[in-house]
Amino acid sequence: MIAAIRSEWIKLSTIRVTWILAIVAVAFPLVVALLTAALAEDLSGETLAGVITGTTVVSGMLLGVVASNGITGEFSHQTIRPTFAAMPDRWRPLLAKPIVHVGLAAVLTATVVGVSWVAGRLIAGDSTSEDLEGTGAALIGVVLLAIGLTLLGYGLGLLIRNTPATICVLLLWPLIAEGLIAGLLTAVGAEGATKWLPYSAGISMAVVDVGGGDDTLSRVGGGIYFFVWVLAILAFGLYTAKRRDA
Questions:
Q1: Predicted pLDDT at 111
Q2: What range defines the domain where residue 47 resides?
Q3: Which three-class secondary structure string do you get for the chain?
């Protein structure tokens, strides 16, 4: 398994688009957070955390694109065939790839969240200790969300096997489809059902003030519900990849 993980890391690190998207995923939240801290007056920890989590969600989506491209590119260029030929037990490469991508997503998002928070509070000239107690859950939640989006991108890639189509589903579902569905549910008086939309539930992990009530899931509940969907898609993708021809 170690050899398979090492092989997948070589594949991931030698693709140019990986580095481009990784740089954007790190730079975007960091630059926005630092500019906010430098230009805003009386910046509270809650506001800064909201900026960090809001921008890091974009980073998570970009890392999901990296994961989806990592597997769909193998199918489109037929490089998955020699991989399966070298490792007839398909579970090894199929599980090694998400391990590498999840590791990358966790390290990058945790680093950018931590650096953005500490640097932003230092620039704002305030202490982080009091605010961190109330916002730490959201900062951790956005890292978990990025990991979930990475696994989702990989699972969708296994199922669809086409890079543009997979990226469209990964990005358009949260950006457009869930908004339209939520609007329709609200129009028919079923706005309480919107909390069961997968991405809306997952994003609750990264919201500083989640709120409460019957119309929203809690941070933990939303995260669990989101990961149930992600793991179901991932499991189905792994099953089909194990059974289908490469």
A1: 94
A2: 2-172
A3: CHHHHHHHHHHHHCCHHHHHHHHHHHHHHHHHHHHHHHHCCCCCHHHHHHHHHHHHHHHHHHHHHHHHHHHHHHHHCCCHHHHHHHCCCCHHHHHHHHHHHHHHHHHHHHHHHHHHHHHHHHHHCCCCHHHHHHHHHHHHHHHHHHHHHHHHHHHHHHHHCCHHHHHHHHHHHHHHHHHHHHHHHHHCCCHHHHHHCHHHHHHHHHCCCCCCCCCCCCHHHHHHHHHHHHHHHHHHHHHHHHHCCC
